[in-house]
Specification:
2 copies of one chain form a homodimer. Helices cover 40% and strands 24% of the residues of chain A. With 325 residues, chain A is an alpha+beta fold. In chain A, strand 1 and strand 2 form a beta hairpin. Strand 2 of chain A pairs antiparallel with strand 3 of chain B. Chains A, B: Its EC number is 6.2.1.n2. Chains A, B: It is an enzyme of class 6 (ligase).
Amino acid sequence: MSNTTVSEARTELDDQTELEARRREFGRQLIAAGLLIPTGIDGLYGRGGDFEAIIDGIDFAVRAAAAAAYDTAPRVLRFPPVFPRANFEKTDYIASFPNLTGAINTFTGDNKAHRALLADRENGVDWDGHLESAGTMLVSAACHPAYAGLTGVLDEPVLLDVYGYCFRHEPSLDPARMQAFRMHEYVYVGDAEGAAQHRNSWVQRGLDVLAGLGLDAQAVAANDPFFGRAGRMLAANQREENLKTELVVPLYGGLGEPTAIVSANCHQEHFGENFAITAPDGSVAHSACVGFGMERIALALLRTHGLVINGWPSSVRAALGMPQG
Amino acid sequence: MSNTTVSEARTELDDQTELEARRREFGRQLIAAGLLIPTGIDGLYGRGGDFEAIIDGIDFAVRAAAAAAYDTAPRVLRFPPVFPRANFEKTDYIASFPNLTGAINTFTGDNKAHRALLADRENGVDWDGHLESAGTMLVSAACHPAYAGLTGVLDEPVLLDVYGYCFRHEPSLDPARMQAFRMHEYVYVGDAEGAAQHRNSWVQRGLDVLAGLGLDAQAVAANDPFFGRAGRMLAANQREENLKTELVVPLYGGLGEPTAIVSANCHQEHFGENFAITAPDGSVAHSACVGFGMERIALALLRTHGLVINGWPSSVRAALGMPQG
């Protein structure tokens, strides 16, 4: 290793340490301001009133962009945070992201079994062994519960407006990496050309939404964090075929990678095949989606415009549908 | 058994069958109208745009009542649908309602363990054995995640505005018994007198909100569905001490018990003791809450005013903050 490389490595390490320190400091600031409320577990927070006002404002801006884009409004679907295991299976998420999943267990026993559970609990013994699968999973991506309703032959391409809570088990001190967060998605299901056009149109529309909020975002080719050795190939393939575009914003100046706050994706025939959805032309349906990461956009706004929303630029407050100071 | 008793028993059975039939029929109507979207599991539904508009409208009415009641706005707290196991433990919910709980499991293994999971999956074998506790639970009542943040000595009584998704594992064909639903709560934590006053004031305020929505609700003494033999004593005690008042509306005329759509509860020192919250006077804090069952109120509105929200009475639409037709 040459001296230069050692010095470069040291600088990278310093940067990493500095980045971690800045993330923690940002987290502390958010909590001190009452924007986030700690729960005792990394990546799980309550939200204060101002934080929710920002989320509602972002949703106002996103919906305005969709309303301007479509003559016929996309079909509104809202799902609870849990959905059937059978539909989760069809997403193949357990194959690609097992470490991020959330399976729901519950107690289905009788009085005697309950007494045994409580005895373990009293003795400080883990009581999970007394539970069984509830047949449900936490939603990993807002659009996942939507596909099962489309099984069959589509009369025409479908456009969905889906918004809900997502769960990903990745405990972190980085405020931008939450275990539970909201995603507002616009989903297209139809033919390959329509899917590509949907994804591409939302890259530009997403940039416009973010610019209206005073965020200087860039569109970059990206890949999902597929699990394990096999996952590396999937990730490389996703990049090579240009299936995922992220809109990213630097949260800490030049430190670390910029943070993805919007994601626009072509799924090719993945959901069409697994959920047996046939496009109007008789082929297996293609799909595409754009997902607005609501909490991450809120954090980008707070980093950019400050922690006091009353002091945000009037153009930004107007884009968020907030009353003018 | 006398003839009269046999005949009465037969009538009761007929009523029960008729009630089940009406519930299924209502469920079918809601799905046909696109208000609810079936997921393949009883009690788990997606929501259509009109259903969500009703939920937003109910929230508008509830918030208006709270705004009129308080000079100082209650503190807004919004929690995701999962919260730490450690805080769930302090609610004692696993002792009283084990059958309703939802524990989160996830995969924490390596490549090899993942291959073993996928092999089981491929062979149609249940793969839950490859998962471990994620340290989190689904939220059973909207207020549960709020108490951990109050541990310590309160300077003054606390008033919280909490709204979120709740999970209760009770699969049912009754549309009014969902596994995932939203609850908007106003929570008081302070002294015993303040808690009783909070509960009582919200019984009347709740009735007023519902009357404004054109719902003819009654306040009745009630108890929670505590689990098992020991639970029967807890339920009797709750009724005897008048700790739970439900606002109920008949959904199917005189058939079956009317449905609870709002619940006002005194918790006595339960949460104060378990979360170590001390009232300003130095005693263990008492708490009380009112919970508006958003989905159930929506269903009561749909039963009462019909499935087409554009046709609802203008006074009801005004109370819901909906534009006038």
